[in-house]
Amino acid sequence: MRATGLVRGRAAKRFGRAGGAGDAIGQCRATGHDCLGGSAMIEQYVWDLHEVDETQVAVVGGKGAHLGGLSRIEGIRVPAGFCVTTDAFRRIMAEAPSIDDGLDQLSRLNPDDREAIRTLSAQIRRTIEGIAIPGDLAAAITRALARLGEHAACAVRSSATAEDLPTASFAGQQDTYLNVVGPTAILQHVSRCWASLFTERAVTYRQRNGIDHRTVHMAVVVQQMVFPHAAGILFTADPVTGNRKVATVDAGFGLGEALVSGLVNPDVFTVRDGEVVAKAIAAKERAVQALPAGGTQEVAIDAQRQEQPALTDAQAVQLVQLGRRIEAHFGRPQDIEWCLVDDGFRIVQSRPITTLFPIPERGDQENHVYVSVGHGQMMTDPMKPLGFSMWQLTAMVAMHEAGGRLFVDVTRRLASPASRAGLLDILGKGDPLIRDALETVLDRDGFVPSIPDEGPGRPPAGGAPAPIETDPAIVTKLIERSQTSIAALERDIRAKTGPALFDFLLDAFEEHKRVLSDPLSMQAVMAGMEATWWLNDKLQEWLGEKNAADTLTLSAPDNITSEMGLALLDVADVIRPYPEVVAFLQGVEDEGFLDELAKLAGGTEARDAIEAYLDRYGMRCVGEIDITRPRWRERPTTLVPVILDNVRNFEPGAAERRFEQGRQKAQEKEQDVLSRLRAQPDGDRKADEAKRMIDRVRTFIGYREYPKYGIISRYFVYKRALLEEAERLVRANVLPEKEDVFYLTFQEF
């Protein structure tokens, strides 16, 4: 009976003729056991599993490499067997030049052209199965088989070089055959495994994923058949929740094919800390068992046995303990196929669980709670290595990378009751869903154990404000200080190249962090935020007004983000009177369009307006915390649709009017709030307090956006210097494209 296998990843060679070969019998280089092998010649056609480790995917495929690795783990029992290497496959492929023509035809087909793919792939499979295995190759296989027992029942398993890799899962594409008996049948099924590289599903999958059929090769694993009482799958991390401390065991009677094929629902055991914490026992009406003469069959299970567990709790715990050894060996959570026979468990495969979102490396066994940095910045896409490494080097708190995204570890702050309250409050103000998620984590018994308070958290809303005077001159001073620092950076970096540039940047990163941690700047930011919280809380309490600060902060001064939007309205005002420029911009695709504008009536004015905007805001872009993202200055066409929308949808002078309208609304709201407060008992005191906070919020809330503007301005200086260095590497033929450095971390660069 055929069983479905798993395929992951990709290899790297074109099919070609492999000459010479053979096998040898001697001692295993790894263990000293009697085994096949003895020579590491690349043309060697048969390797004993004990000769193999997980580094040899190109020789024995993903499944073979993992089985070899498993066989080296103390206490893990793997059925004896051998691998027919990819050299044998390449030799077979070279026997039929017509296959190469078929692959050319396949590569030109659309993945949705199922009929053509079905026809061509079937033709290639027939050709491969029709090729007589050369005598020396057949002899090598049969000699290896004799060491297992010439008439021993075997599993003949496909092992592609694109299979069971750490980061890719191409599941269910090639074939495995169970309970194959005798040399003739083994050789026939080896050919079938080779041919299964070109099943319709495998071909279509590679087509859809842009994988050249010639870059994937097929090895074959032949192992002694195991006839288990029970079999199934162990996940050393919960594949649903991602919890690395919880393992799940799926179990059924007979061969594991009953579970893989969906014939039965499995028993499911959940194991944590050496204990079964949950289990669901299924009604297992059928099983797959081996036939004495070879092959498999479905059989009915006695009614009284159907709802009995396939494993005891003790066996499930023992299996998970074995799984933890395997996980430790491979260094990541594993999806493990297992069988239970009279004297214990046999492991017949282990592969990475590729569906788990990665977690930061911490090197301990403690629970950790992480908050995404990107979500708070409305940037959920993964960052390239240069991007996240630069952020890690310049951030004020430790940043942990996982899946190309950055996270802050908030575990310790959640563990302290005082800091927990402050953290939940401040994060909840920004995003209530984050607060809800953190509270859900805290509700898990013991997940975040409490520790003594280390100090106060953020003062609760309505408490004492940050220690800073309500003085607009403070914001002016901070902005001037930031501009001076950035100008110095631009001046000093110009002459730096090579190692001197990177030494300079490391010093610049320290200055970057010093600027970010400026106490006066932090006080100004917090003063605006705390005044906002105070107003929202108190005005809801006193007047029933929800989110009153939203209106009271309209058109607040020194808001660089608001100024950026209004300035683009001013650009539209310059362009609007010139229809020729508007028409030209509607067809712009080339990033060099600014140079073409001067040829048009009004083009010089339009170009100068756009250039002036880019001089002030050209370092911004979508996802700007990733330094590798194209900036507006680098890709000015990004702004063209917004400019044209402003031309169409707004009248001249819209920026000034919108700002004034916002200021007027804020002023009217202030007057309304204060008059209503004065009409209340103790109203003068309430109104005076509210007035102080309104003045405070309008003084400082606009500055809240400025530190990020400063960060992004500095990032653009860093980026331009790094790209100039990358251009030198391109000229030296070290890199094909300067943007290739985006895939290096700063340290690697």
Question: Which secondary structure elements does this structure contain, and how are they paired or packed?
Answer:
Layout: E1 2-7, E2 25-27, E3 34-36, E4 46-48, H1 57-71, E5 81-84, H2 86-94, H3 97-107, H4 114-130, H5 135-148, E6 153-160, E7 170-181, H6 183-195, H7 200-208, E8 218-224, E9 230-235, E10 246-253, H8 257-260, E11 267-272, E12 275-280, E13 286-290, E14 296-300, H9 303-306, H10 313-330, E15 334-341, E16 344-352, E17 370-372, H11 373-376, H12 385-394, E18 400-402, E19 405-409, H13 411-415, H14 417-430, H15 432-442, H16 472-493, H17 498-516, H18 519-543, H19 549-552, H20 560-575, H21 579-586, H22 593-597, H23 603-617, H24 640-649, H25 654-678, H26 683-700, H27 706-731
Antiparallel strand pairs: 1-7, 2-3, 4-5, 5-8, 6-7, 6-8, 9-10, 9-15, 10-11, 11-12, 13-14, 15-16, 17-19, 18-19
Helix pairs in contact: 3-4, 4-6, 14-15, 16-17, 16-27, 17-27, 18-26, 20-23, 20-24, 20-25, 25-26
Brief description of this entry?
Residues 448-467 are annotated as: Disordered. The protein is α+β, with helices and mostly antiparallel strands and 749 residues long.
